[in-house]
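INFO  loader      accepted 1 record
INFO  loader      residues=52
INFO  predictor   begin
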Amino acid sequence: MEIITEEIRGQYLEDKVQVDIKYVFRESLLFDTQDKKYYQITAIAEYARKIL
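INFO  predictor   done
INFO  writer      dumping tokens
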């Protein structure tokens, strides 16, 4: 698995978003995938992480 990281600097906390992409294994899906790959993409603003 290749991990790509790139940092982009923003002036404010709300300028930055952390993105996480994970492969979803076929065995965990409850439907026929027809040989397609599925990914879970999660994004959260840096500002939200500071206030939660």
